[in-house]
Design a protein that fits this description.
The complex is a heterodimer of chains A (801) and B (338). Chain A has 801 residues and is of the alpha+beta class. Chain A is built from 20 helices and 42 strands. Chain B has two domains: 89 residues; 227 residues, 2-Layer Sandwich (BirA Bifunctional Protein, domain 2). The chains are: A alpha+beta (801), B alpha+beta (338).
Chain lengths: 801, 338
């Protein structure tokens, strides 16, 4: 919403500077989002008189003028032809800066000195096009800045209006706010309409068939008009608030809308079939061409203004081509009405047709302001288009709207706001807002808001007005008394934070992807046609196709992040994401939003450095992170089950992570085809964990194991084993001895290659023996160790090396 | 014999002062004091002395032996000390070479800001609540006093799903879900992901908010101002100016936008604050009675306030991020700075 400082001054007297006014409005809730000092830099463009005009000696199309700028006479070369000696013109002096950062300098044009430039309206930013230079009225005083003497110097305010303040979609509305704040009232003169000739009733009839959607419809007729361009002041005023000039009549309706907030429409009276206006709902499928030349298909909930032949306007939104004001129009019907906001909004939204008019109607206009706006427009049309206003006006207003009487308790307002204002101060504030206030005997106030404040319906609305006008700055800051103790973060919340800490400690960077993804994400992961994750939740109105479905897996986003980073030459990556996925549920309206935790590893194991290895990261690095994570959560008895859990993993390098029959997640190397689908050249290792399963299986640490005080002894054991023998089997066999003396057994070397027969591998394990109650002798250890060795040989068919 | 002893003493003194290493000192020591050394050899001559002379010379031998022993002991420890110093000198390393660093991980700045804000409010007695991101119109709009066909709905461009649910446009539905489950008094905050169909340098179609709600007897707008003032001071620094100005949200009345003095220019006016000296960081207000009506609370009996803030906005101010999209590009060159 745009208003100007000068325009506001026509409606209310105030002393505030533009900056002070902006602050005042912002603190009233009308946030000034932008200010523009129009004409501020134009003081070097002054009124001047052309004393003499002669032909340029060296150029046919140029003239050399002697121009009096009020102080001295200067020579100026000019290319325009539309002026003569004696004319008053706009002289941009040396040093002036015109719109477009055009600096005026002393120059020589074809050998003739030129001390400035005679300006056109276009050059001054006053018009989009102009022929020749601007000829000013002869009354202006030479030497004074042009913008100042034309009254163009102004400050434009851009106000970010909240949707509740429909009343402020006008200059008078903003002026009322200023008046209420500074304790004055707006200037609201009676409008004299020069009526002549026959009554309006002799030229037009109006019938409203749907008074629910159109409770009030008023009209006036103006005959004998001449459609012409608007005068300068009107064009400029509309331009200041961002409205393009059309012609004198349409401009008047727009001006009055901007001034009073009441949208108006002007019909060409002679085009109205049978000189009749009928306000009714549209017929289902009725076709109507609005004045933007678009064909609109209407539905029964739309409200239309019709003549005897059919629709001539989409009520409150846009007029029709068939009754539009054109250059040959002479009779005009001015419409001023009040339409039901929700109806206007429904039609406007359905048609995607948002206009200055619909914007105001859907927020709610002033039903008592209908006639004032109509009169103002009729008087202005008569003045500017030279017609005569027919006697009287039509006003179909069967049920007079009565603003609510609200009972208001001053002490309730004080309690809610935490202030102590007297009843009297509150009454003054409310009356300043043009509410009528009656004091009841019990201290309660009966308050009736003015008709334009449709947002005030309840006591709380009045409380807000008190707070607003008294000033939010005048409310103290206090601390509420605590009657609640905050809960400890839930287990779920604590685990989320704990998991992040564990992964960060493992050098992983947390990423956040959008929750919506591309519909072909499942294809890129090679998911089967029956994979439930293909049943995605689709957005009805996505911004782009790539963000049109809610994700059911975090893997695609993770791999995209890997690819994007690699394209930036960040090659060594450890990324994780812990967010929700969105799963459709059968027979349930609301989807399931479980949290998943995924991680990706690629590149080198260690960071680049003078003493660091450049070995590639592999499956076991990823597995190690998950093992540590599960250990910190005290989740034991974890099985790594080779079951080809996901299509997006390498079948030989992936597994499920199980506890009993519960799958906690999966881990593996990304399948080469998937890798290619995401544009990745090097292997990527990922894990995916289901957060809810971790919450369920997570255990609190029960008891610690007291370390033994006796010395340990280690024995190494190297064996040749079949390639298919799993490490898990070997360790299980070692522990299967169930000797308390085995403190720990670990695989410390795995080797395949030279010296080892094909189909075999060399595995070395280290066993640490220790007792809790004594120092073990070599003999004791040897007995256990040889039992282990025998077991390995007999049960696993390994050969000891 | 006395002369011989005296000469031995001289020789020892000279040898020690000439010695250049621990080795030569050790050799000389053995030569003078060893079992087959020169002093031992001299002592064999003690037997040939008279009974009168024997104790006197014997004493002299002892004192000279002690002297020579001390001499060697001192020289040896000085030599060892020197050798150690010299060895340590030669072992010098280049301590300016970079350390061998383990990989350092990082939490996303959004996660960090949520944790920081939650922690501050935990101190005020606010518990954390959560709710679904895919919501019913009723929780997201209607119960929050956005009637159907109300222009206030234009304030929040909404993504709808094909089965006519929506992606929540704010964390405020968590207020409704909490109030339906819990009776007052209550203090909660609800951090979460929200969505609006809007995308440019300052808008992302997905972003994060933290909602706050406090309901109790006699909670006032002044209390809201108090809580938010202390919160902004804890988050942005003790002296941060705070300004509340009137605004509009359907679910609060009176409503306020909360501005802080620009953390970039200190309130003088700059590009970030659009020359106003103020930065809008959250929206707030007293819970509208219409909302209580929807959750079966008695608006005459209790009162309360709600507030909501954009996490990205706070992160951008805290870290001087100009383009919100940077937060969602997942570039490790950015993430590793947190």
């Amino acid at each position: 919403m745009k208003v100007t400082y000068n325009w506001l001054k026509e409606f209310v007297d105030f002393d505030q500077s533009p900056e002070q006014l902006a602050d005042l409005l912002t603190m009233l809730g009308l946030e000034v989002e932008g200010m523009e000092n129009y004409g501020a830099g134009m003081d070097q463009v002054v009124v001047a008189v052309v004393e003499e005009k002669r032909q340029h000696p060296n150029a046919d199309k140029l003239s050399v003028c002697r121009v009096n700028n009020g102080r001295e006479i200067v020579d100026v070369v000019c290319g325009a032809q539309n002026f003569k000696a004696g004319d008053i013109v706009a002289l941009a002096q040396i040093g002036a800066v015109l719109p477009g950062d055009f600096k005026i300098k002393r120059s020589k044009i074809r050998g003739e000195e030129s001390c400035g430039m005679l300006c056109s309206e276009k050059e001054l930013g006053l018009a989009e096009e102009s022929a020749g230079i601007m000829i000013l009225p002869p009354t202006l005083v030479p030497g004074t800045p042009v913008f100042e003497s034309l009254g163009l110097k102004d400050t434009f305010f851009e106000i970010g209006l909240t949707p509740n303040r429909a009343d402020c979609l006008s200059v008078i509305g903003v002026a009322r706010e200023i008046a209420a704040k500074i304790g004055t009232s707006v200037k609201c003169n009676r409008i004299a309409v020069p009526e002549h000739g026959p009554s309006i009733n002799s030229s037009i009839t109006v019938s409203v068939e749907d008074s629910e959607l159109c409770p009030r419809y008023a009209a006036r007729a103006v005959h004998g008009c001449r459609i012409a361009p608007s005068p300068e002041w009107l064009v400029n005023r509309l331009a200041a608030v961002g409205v393009r000039s059309i012609n004198n009549v349409v401009d008047v309706t727009n001006l009055v809308m901007m001034e009073l907030g009441q949208p108006l429409h002007a019909f060409d009276c002679d085009q109205l079939v049978d000189s009749r206006i009928v306000v009714r709902r549209a017929l289902e499928g009725e076709i109507f061409t609005t004045l933007d030349s678009q064909q609109r298909v209407l539905v029964a909930s739309d409200l239309v203004i019709c003549d005897a032949g059919g629709p001539v306007a989409l009520a409150g939104i846009m007029g029709g081509e068939n009754s539009e004001i054109n250059d040959s129009t002479t009779s005009i019907l001015l419409e001023s009405a009040w339409f039901k906001p929700a109806a206007i909004r429904t039609t406007s939204k359905r048609l995607g047709l948002h206009t200055e008019s619909s914007h105001r109607f859907e927020r709610g206009t002033d039903i008592d302001g209908v006639i004032r706006a109509l009169d103002r427009a009729a008087a202005l049309v008569a003045e500017l288009a030279g017609g005569t206003v027919a006697q009287g006006f039509i006003d179909v207003y069967p049920v007079k709207s009565v603003p609510p009487a609200i009972s208001f308790r001053p002490e309730r307002a004080n309690a809610l706001l935490g202030i102590k204002l007297s009843s009297k101060v509150m009454i003054d504030i409310l009356r300043g807002l043009e509410c009528s206030v009656t004091e009841m005997t019990d201290g309660i106030l009966m308050v009736t808001p003015p008709s334009y404040r449709i947002d005030i319906e309840r006591e709380i609305d009045l409380v807000e007005e008190i707070a607003r006008l008294n000033g939010y700055d005048n409310i103290p800051a206090s601390m509420p008394i605590a009657r609640v103790i905050s809960d400890r973060p839930s287990l779920h919340q604590r685990l989320e934070s704990m998991l992040r800490n564990i992964l960060v400690a493992h050098g992983m960077n947390e990423i956040i992807n959008f929750s919506f993804t591309t519909p072909d994400a499942a294809d890129k992961l090679l998911m089967s046609d029956v994979d439930p994750r293909r049943s995605v939740i689709k957005l009805a109105n996505p911004l782009v196709e790539e963000q049109s479905v809610m994700r059911t897996s975090l893997i695609p986003g993770l791999l995209e992040a890997v690819a994007k980073n690699i394209s930036h030459r960040s090659l060594d990556l450890r990324l994780f994401e812990m967010r929700r996925v969105y799963i459709n549920r059968q027979n349930e309206e609301m989807p399931h939003e479980p949290i998943y935790l995924v991680g990706a590893f690629t590149g080198a194991r260690e960071r680049e450095g003078w003493g660091n290895s450049r070995d590639s990261i592999d499956f076991y690095d990823a597995k190690g992170v998950v093992e540590n994570l599960l250990e910190e959560l005290h989740i034991s008895n974890v099985k790594w089950v080779v079951d080809t859990p996901e299509t997006f993993y390498h079948p030989g390098k992936s597994c499920s992570i199980m506890v009993g029959k519960e799958r906690l997640g999966t881990i593996g190397e990304i399948h080469p085809t998937v890798q290619k689908n995401f544009g990745l050249e090097k292997p990527v290792f990922c894990f995916e964990l289901y957060f809810e399963k971790l919450v369920v299986l997570h255990r609190l640490k029960a008891a610690i194991v007291v370390p033994s005080r006796f010395p340990d002894s280690t024995r190494d054991l190297a064996m040749l084993a079949s390639d298919c023998l799993s490490a898990e089997k070997i360790l299980e066999t070692v522990k299967g001895i169930k000797a308390q003396e085995i403190e720990h057994a670990e695989i410390f070397d795995v080797y395949k290659g030279a010296g080892i027969p094909t189909g075999f591998k060399s595995i070395a394990i280290r066993i640490r023996y220790r007792s809790y109650d004594r120092t073990l002798t070599d003999d004791e250890i040897n007995i256990i160790h040889s039992r282990i060795t025998e077991n390995l040989v007999s049960k696993l068919k390994v050969s000891i090396r | 014999m006395r002369e011989q002893l005296e000469q031995l003493r001289h020789e020892a003194l000279k040898t020690v002062s000439d010695a250049s290493s621990e080795e030569t000192l050790q050799e000389a020591r053995i030569r003078f004091l060893g079992r087959k050394g020169e002093l031992t050899a001299l002592m064999k001559g003690l037997g040939g002395l008279s009974a009168d002379e024997r104790p006197v010379v014997g004493q002299l031998v002892n004192s000279i032996r002690d002297e020579i022993e001390n001499l060697f002991e001192t020289a040896l420890s000085a030599e060892r000390e020197r050798a150690t110093v010299s060895r340590l000198q030669s072992e010098r390393i280049d301590i300016t070479l970079p350390g061998r660093r383990a990989l350092r991980g990082s939490k996303h700045p959004i996660t960090q800001v949520i944790a920081e804000v939650s922690e501050i409010f935990a101190g005020f007695g606010f518990s954390v609540a959560e709710g679904p991101e895919i919501e019913h119109d009723w929780y997201n709009f209607e119960a929050l006093n956005f009637p159907p066909e109300h222009p206030a709905r234009d304030m929040q461009d909404t993504f709808f799903t094909e089965n006519s649910l929506l992606l929540r446009t704010h964390t405020s539905p968590v207020q409704i879900r909490t109030m339906l489950k819990t009776k007052p008094p209550l203090r909660i905050i609800a951090p979460g992901t929200v969505y609006r169909c809007d995308s440019d340098a300052t808008h992302s179609p997905m972003f994060h908010q933290i909602e706050g709600l406090m309901i109790d007897k006699d909670v006032s707008f002044a209390d809201l101002k108090g809580i938010l003032t202390i919160f902004t001071n804890q988050l942005f620094g003790q002296k941060t100016g705070v300004r509340l100005r009137p605004s509009f949200f359907p679910f609060t009345e009176p409503s306020a936008e909360v501005d802080i003095a620009c953390v970039i220019c200190g309130g003088k006016g700059c590009r970030v604050c659009k020359q106003t000296g103020w930065l809008e960081i959250l929206g707030a207000g007293m819970v509208d009675p219409e909302v209580y009506h929807h959750v079966n609370y008695d608006a005459e009996d209790i009162s309360g306030f709600a507030f909501g803030m954009g996490i990205e906005r706070i992160a951008m101010l805290k870290y001087g991020i100009r383009d919100m999209r940077l937060l969602f590009e997942n570039d490790v060159r950015f993430l590793r700075q947190f």
